[in-house]
Amino acid sequence: MSKQQQHWEKTRGLLFVTLAIWFVFSIGIFFFGAEMQESNIRPFGYPLTYWFTCQGSLGIFVILIFWFAGRQEKIDEEFGYSEKEDD
Amino acid sequence: MFKGKFIDNLPKIYGTYTGGFLVFIILMAIAEQAGMSAKLIGIFFVAFTVLIYALIGYLSRTLQVDAYYVAGRQVPTVFNGMATAADWMSGASFVAMAGGIYFKGYGYMALLVGWTGGYVLVASLLAPYLRKFGCYTVPDFIGTRYGGNAARLCAVLVLTVASFTYVTAQINATGTIASVALDIPFGIAVYVGLASILMCSMLGGMRAVTWTQVAQYIVLIIAYLLPVFWISNKLGAGVFPHFMLADEVARISELESQFGLGTVKNSAADLATVPKGLAGITKAHSDVNTTPWKFISLAVCMMAGTASLPHVMMRYFTTPSVKSARRSVGWSLFFIFLLYSSAPMLATLSKLSLMDPNLATGIIGKSIADVQALDWYQNWNQANLMFVSDFNGNGTLELNEFFMGGKAVVLATPEIAGLPYVISGLVAAGGMAAAMSTADGLVLAIANALSHDLYYKIIDPKAETAKRLIVARVLLVVIGFAGATIAALEIQGILGSVIWAFDFAMSGLFFPLVLGVWWKRANAQGAVAGMLLGLASGTAYLIWVRTGGAGFWGVTQLTFGIVGSLVSLVSMVVVSLITKAPDAATQRMVDEVRVPSGKTVLGKQH
Fold first, then answer.
1. Does residue B96 sit within a domain?
2. Disulfide engineering: B311 pairs with which of A4, B91, B445, B553, CB 3.0-4.6 Å?
3. A72 and B326 in contact by Cβ < 8 A?
4. B134, B342, B573 from B510: Cα distances, Å
């Protein structure tokens, strides 16, 4: 397998992990909205589903993107595909 | 004071700007104490900020193609994040979203999840790859990746339909705010709003829009957060509302059942007397009050729509590198998060101020005559955003007898909570900034697609730079006027049109964009079929449901993108597979796009 193919393989792997986490917090948990609302886990005292829609999922997305960007930069470096700083 | 290059001085320049704006707010507060009238304060706020944007727009004028289309590709990561946040957060986010949450609760919070979750798709599926491609516009990518004018033309079509639907809503929002703040009729205010929008974008294209959007973000975020924190502290609800409003949320649930929410229903005859566009509270504040599918389908549409809307995507064409495009998406979402996580808090505070009989501001349970005598009630009743009526004739205001327009939650809450008028003026300036920045991005996206892709790439490829830029500017004005004319007709509410725009974009562009990067086998025929059939089926479904059709799978007029994009995906895959695979050159191009380093696929100037 060529260097480029390996790079793409890893990039795709990262994409699947990222999208899986994204799916859980944007779609997955909301199948159980009513159940979560009843739960005793109450971040900052808010009902759980309410908290996820107000802050939880949103905050997780922010962190997820920065994490994804960091991982992708590592992959690019590993294969020597990073851009030069001067551009 | 500012030596050296403009770009290196950005933190200083915008730091000074922010300081200057805060001083302006303080001066206005002093002027209010000294007896300046509320009307004059409103005019000062809106006029002052709009003039500043126009000045930035003028200073950023340019005669270069790559500065006009992509701001010279030198916008630093964090500043691009701010500009994108302003580009993204429209009048709907600023003025209408808290209202939607106020009235519908959980069902509308799908918008919060959808409008943020979409950025994960932007970061991982598209933005870095389109930046590497080096295109000027989104149809530029489609046209070059798939080859042929047909694909380019279809992309221009979808872009225009989606963005135009969106921009009429934004011009409508600027008109609403300008008409309230400057006290002029809506029909004229719409054109005042348009003039301000064009002043920011006409001379400098993307470069001017970028630097005004950063300035607009600063105004809008101050204007949104300041009242939320102030009201929260004033009510004693918490120093930091985002983490401390749990008791208030619980208190609202208690009051809702006490006031008979959901059990006391208004008769149709009573409701007919309520002015059009106003609504009462009919849904619980924090309960899960909708089916999982309804919530999820709306969130999915907003997420896929986010990843397909060209005015957002083109912001990532302006960063210096692929790496910074990726990080810039994270910063964009961070800046958006600051406002979005505050919207439910504002809805909570607003509702509690109105409902809680223990608070001085509470009106439910008071006598109707007292409420009608309130200053702020009279103001907003006159603006057609508030209404009370004694349906049951008992002389007291019940929860089901109070009606409000969605926009009032943001615009009127500071006044209701008894904040000085200077805050209301600030909020009006913030709403204006939000609507203007988005309208600018959208008008520019449409005009650039028409001037670059339709005019330069298809009609007259030999056109000189000067001529191209004149065409671009003429189109900008024409599209602006068309948008304002339709906005003046007020066909659909702000939030409704915005949601439609997402559905249109998702129907036609989501899969052709994503598969262009992630599926080498996708070809021009497939992309054309995907765009046209996707857009056509989505539109057909919308018309069918609007004209009384039953729909299927629980897909409503707000989520028709689900039907459109599925048709788009299936037709694109099927047609691609039964026609010839793309040639070797195209395949190589896709390989190149997938690698961050090296030259862009399209030249620096094309």
1. no
2. B445
3. yes
4. 19, 29, 13
| Assigned token pair, B22 | 């805060």
Q: Which residues from A are below 8 Å from B345, CB to CB?
A: 54
B366 pLDDT exceeds 90?
no
Residues of chain A contacting B121 with CB distance shorter than 8 Å: 22
Q: What is the pLDDT of residues B420-455, one digit of tens each?
A: 889 988 998 999 899 889 998 998 888 888 888 888
Helix ranges (H only) for B235-321 are 241-244, 246-258, 268-271, 292-308, 310-313
B375 within some domain? no
Token pair for residue B61? 């004028």
Whole-number Å distance between alpha carbons of B218 and B232:
21
pTM above 0.90, yes or no: yes
The residue among B88, B116, B336 with the most chain A CBs within 10 A of its CB, best to mutate, is B116
Beta bridge partners of B402: B388
State how many domains chain B has.
1
Residue B394 lies in a domain: no
Q: Does A6 touch chain B (CB under 8 A)?
A: no
**Does B443 map to a domain?**
yes
Q: Are B200 and B59 in contact (CB under 8 A)?
A: no
For residue A38, the chain B residues in CB contact (below 8 A) are none
Please tell me which of the candidates A27, A58, A82 has its beta carbon nearest to residue B296: A27
Structure tokens at B502: 């997402």
3-state secondary structure of B388: strand
- Cα separation, B574 vs B200, whole angstroms: 44
The A residues from 44 to 63 touching B (CB cutoff 8 Å) are 44-47, 49-50, 52-55, 57-59, 61-62
Q: Which backbone phi and psi does B83 adopt, to 5 degrees?
A: -60, -40
Question: What CATH number corresponds to the domain at position B502?
Answer: 1.20.1730.10
- In chain B, which residues have their Cβ closer than 8 Å to the Cβ of A44? 243-244, 246
Contact A18 B114 (CB under 8 A): no
What pLDDT does A20 receive?
96
Rounded to whole angstroms, the Cα distance separating B345 from B331 reads: 22
Closest CB to A76 among B247, B288, B596: B596
Confidence check: pLDDT of B509 > 90: yes
- Spatial neighbors of B340 by CB under 8 A, at least 6 apart, are A58, B93, B97, B112, B115, B116
Task: Kindly state whether A34 is in contact with chain B, defined as any CB-CB distance less than 8 angstroms.
Answer: yes
Give the separation between CA A62 and CA B328, rounded to whole angstroms: 11
DSSP one-letter string for B308-367: H-HHHHGGGGGSSSHHHHHHHHHHHHHHHHHHHTTHHHHHHHHHHHHH-TTSTT--TTSB
Q: Enumerate the domain spans of chain A.
A: 17-78
Q: What pLDDT, in 10s, does the model give residues A23-75?
A: 999 999 999 888 888 888 888 888 888 899 989 999 999 999 999 999 999 99
- What confidence tier does B15 reach under pLDDT thresholds 50, 70, 90? very high
Alpha carbon of A31: minimum distance to chain B alpha carbons (Å): 5
Residue B174: domain span: 37-58+101-366+418-593
Predicted ipTM of the assembly:
0.94
* Mean pLDDT score across all residues of chain B: 88
Question: What backbone torsions phi and psi does residue B598 show, to the nearest 5 degrees?
Answer: 90, 180
Task: Say if the Cβ atoms of B330 and A62 lie within 8 Å.
Answer: yes
pLDDT at B1 over 60: no
Q: Which residues of B touch A69 (CB under 8 A)?
A: 123, 323, 326-327, 329-330
Partner-chain residue, chosen from B245, B295, B321, that has the shortest CB–CB distance to A33: B295
Q: Shortest CB distance from B249 goes to which of A50, A53, A65?
A: A50
**Chain B contact for A73, CB < 8 A?**
yes
